[in-house]
Amino acid sequence: MKKFLFALVIMSIIFCGCGEEKKIVPEKVLQAEKIDVDLTKLNANMVYSAVFDMVENPAEYRGKVIKIRGNYFVSHDPAKDEYHHACVIWDATACCMQGMEFELADGKYPPNNSEITLIGKFDVYTIQKIDNPILRDVRLEN
């Protein structure tokens, strides 16, 4: 009987040790990957509407992590010599568009008019008392 119990204990130790190795991930990393609003799962009309809502009601989205897919467009303001980078989303009929400005920390932007997917934190900056939405801390996924 003792040999049977001993064998049972040894086998249970062996089987428990053969499982998948679990990686311990710091809580901050998990939180950084949390996406609050994933617009990539919506159809064209819903994405257009959701971005329109973000533009009209920016306070409700400030600080949330947004995932968005669209076309990359860059514009240049010659008066200030500034470049503005945007992810532009068209509605289903391609008659109307809505854009979300963004900043990449590394400054390595894709070719103009290429399809992009972004993950970034929603924020607002103000110019002449007008709130403008922008994605900060952006990661380009492509």
Can I get a quick summary?
This protein is α/β, with parallel strands linked by helices and 142 residues long.
Attribute tags:
142 residues, alpha/beta, OB fold (Dihydrolipoamide Acetyltransferase, E2P), five-stranded mixed β-barrel, 6 strands, 25% helix, globular, disordered N terminus
The number of E-state strands comes to 6
Q: Structural class of the secondary elements?
A: alpha/beta
The CATH superfamily name is: Nucleic acid-binding proteins
Q: What gyration radius follows from the Cα positions, in whole Å?
A: 24 Å
- Low-confidence parts: 1-32
What characteristic shape results from the CA principal axes? Answer: globular
Tell me about the biggest sheet?
Answer: 5 strands, mixed, barrel
Give the strand line-up of the largest sheet: 2-3-4-6-5
Number of helices: 3
CATH architecture: Beta Barrel
CATH level-3 fold name: OB fold (Dihydrolipoamide Acetyltransferase, E2P)
Order of helices and strands: HHEHEEEEE
Strand content: 35-45%
Count structural domains: 1
| Head-to-tail CA distance between termini | 62 Å
